[in-house]
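quick one
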Amino acid sequence: MTPRLLAAEGLHKAYRLPGGRTLLAVDGVDLHLDRGETLAVVGESGCGKSTLGRLLLRLEQPDAGRMVLDGVDVGGLRGGALQTMRRRVQVVFQDPYASLDPRQRIRAVLTRPMRLHGLCDGAEASRRAAALLERVGLQAAHLDRLPHEFSGGQRQRIAIARALSVGPEVIVCDEPVSALDVSVQAQVINLLQDLQRDTGIALVFISHDLAVVRHLAHRVAVMYAGRVVETAPADRLFGEPSHPYTRALLAAAPRIDMGARLHEAAAGEPPDPSAPPPGCRFAPRCPYVQPACRTGEHPALRSLGEGHATACLFAETLPRMGGQVGPIAVVTETSARIAAYRRARDAAH
Ligand SMILES: Nc1ncnc2c1ncn2[C@@H]1O[C@H](COP(=O)(O)OP(=O)(O)OP(=O)(O)O)[C@@H](O)[C@H]1O
Ligand code: SF4
Ligand SMILES: [Mg+2]
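structure w/ adenosine-5'-triphosphate:
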């Protein structure tokens, strides 16, 4: 049997806080990614999405669990084997203003990774860089420009070209469009989708924007307080969400808007990751909570069939339990950062 392209098995990552407390950023995550597919990872700010992304990229080591690329545990890789793994799994970060060195011309941005990975150099690297720029909707003539000469959307295209420059099989995209104007977001999303169709590359797409996820993802993993609480093919997740948290996220989705979102905190907030509640971590906010939910461990993911898994103890009986899941605040630091960025930018014009 061909191994999964990427599999996370029981990943844990804790950070030590001052005062000796421990913050569980990622707390036992199992995930997989197949060739050519887009897996979206969604959830509120602080639920561990970026930490998970860094673990998948091996920018950080897990405290427990492992990350397996094509059947090989990447935790033990060193030297050339680690370099090859890094070539195969690339990243596009959220902030196109921070991710490009302002002093480096685009030619260097794109040819350096090719050289570092021993793929090509000199005129051949420049030729490939020009082709990459054209592939992402820019022009070969842009090779000698500096990052400040480009808009946010163009910079993100350059970041995508840089990721593609070494021929990866996976790109981890951490909120790649959430810092961009809405009008530009769709263009960058369409570019990612075209690239995936043409190259068969697999994407891990980290996002809190469910409309984008619905458009792009084949499968979705919903994270809450460091855990995956539901995973399913995208159609199924949006059509028949099983976990009350997913339902609440979907109920909030039409209202998700950078400014408005911060005011919808009435339904509670995620738990403090350094002191999660016993039992189901969603229990303090869950309208269906039962006494059994508040004891023991957080419920494990269990299969509902057809690639759908849930961590709710009562998923099958929820529709009969009545009650309404209202929208839940999706309070994100990201959204606050972006709102501040937009205010500053608008004030400058
Ligand atoms: N280097 C670090 N040291 C200490 N705590 C950290 C560190 N990185 C992340 N955390 C904490 O781990 C938790 C998960 O953070 P993470 O950045 O993965 O969340 P996220 O889901 O990506 O959030 P956002 O939507 O705001 O980007 C948060 O409580 C965060 O404060
Ligand atoms: S396990 Fe209980 S508290 Fe947790 S989501 Fe399900 S019903 Fe709600
Ligand atoms: Mg993040």
